[in-house]
Amino acid sequence: MEHLFCIRNYTNLAIEARKEGVAFIFSIAGADLESARVSWQKLDLPPAVAALGGVLDSLAEEELITFRPDGFILPYCALYQLQEWECPIVSELSAPSPYTLSVEAHGTLGRSDFRYEWAHQIGSQVVFLKEQGALLNDIETTYLVSRPCFEALGAMREFNALPVDLKGKEDSLRVLATVQATSNAAGARLEQYLGKQCIIIPPKIGIGVHFDEKDKVSLFPTVEGVPDEAMRQCFMQLGQVQPSYDIGDEHGGRTRVVFNENIQEALQDIRKVRHVGGAAKVKILHDVTSCLSEGVDRDVIDLSQYSKRVVGLSNVPRKALVTASRTPHDWFEIDNHTVTPGVTVTTVEGHEQFLPFEDESQLKSFVQDCRKKLEDGEHELVFRGQTVFVDAKLIGQLTELSAEEPKKGDKQPNNRKYRYLQILTNEETLEYTESAVLDSSADKNLDEFPYVPTSLKSTVKLKPHQLEGLAWLQRTYCLRQHTENFHRGVILADDMGL
Prior knowledge:
Layout: E1 5-9, E2 14-18, E3 21-25, H1 33-41, H2 47-50, H3 56-61, E4 66-68, E5 71-74, H4 77-84, H5 89-93, E6 95-96, E7 100-106, E8 115-122, E9 125-127, E10 130-132, E11 135-137, E12 142-144, H6 147-160, H7 169-186, E13 189-190, H8 192-196, E14 198-200, E15 206-211, E16 217-222, H9 228-237, E17 244-248, E18 254-258, H10 261-271, H11 278-286, E19 319-325, E20 332-334, E21 337-346, E22 352-356, H12 360-375, E23 380-383, E24 386-389, H13 392-402, H14 435-440, H15 464-478
Helix pairs in contact: 6-7, 12-13
């Protein structure tokens, strides 16, 4: 179907459609940009054609031109770039194609005998044309096909030229996906068999988390356009990672998902996380990408499925413990003390926030909401604007705190007794017990600082810059008595507000 043909002839210039692109044949002093520019200016050409000389530098910068001793060649994709630059040579040499592309399949998809055949039609009538790259010719006129049509033709030509042993299932599906997408954009006609094939080739995947009946977790890929549950079942049913998956739907249709090599490498690690509990579960829930081996491309993981406030997968979910604190509005009696109970949420970055219960009613309402989440198979609950991770352990703590009887459907935590530190939040009333040491050092040689606090573990070694900062704080604190209006406190901060 592809034939070399002449597009236009001028006195000193011939323009031809060749396999590698549009060839401009004329006498040139050398195979480089400067020689082509000088020689082009000497040609007697129509203004629309001569205008090409004004964009030779731009074409060279975009690597869209190849210089030869007898002229230069533009790849067919350069014609669309010239259109964007509004260079008139394209409309001078060609007209927009009025033909519709019609595509048929021969052989069985995924078999070595499969190939594409296509034709150009006016209405239902097939028109026999010379075809080369993005150009068609009917002897009298040269036509330029649309960019999507050119991309579809390129994909089919490339596939048909493959050796028989490379026309495997995944190769066929990838090409068909390109043909479908570009053909639809070009308004092409696909035969019924090709049109019914639903193929998705995701550039990225999400990572879904599944909790089983024992509250253990498994990971699976999520793909835009494919129901999560259907993708999970198909992925977990197969023993090994596959380059493609056939996903059925409730209407009897099928979607074929084809993964590239980088995603397949990530899937190998995702597949290893099956029915995980204990410390490994906590690690996965804190950062699902922790399952990926070193060297796996993390750019194939899509974060757009999460809320805008999530900047990384490590931010979800939050660890939660039932704690108590002293506040101006204490209402809960425990061990002869009045405190305010609540939930302390902790992110994997180490940030903690205490979320108090205002009264018994709010506490019991929170317990009911947590139970409802677990019944629905969910593990995240928003309370006071923060995300709380809900599991059986948290339900057990809340039930004990609210003096409720466990519900029949509650998942029971193990019988191990947990004890938690209850940290008071009224820091303003606490005394710094080491202040006397600094006070007594006020008259000493200031070069003796820093004084390392006794509360610091002996195994912790401060770095030089940390020692320097600590020494500055202590010296400045001790020098307060020498100022006219001395202040007791001193702060060392940087641009981050630390």
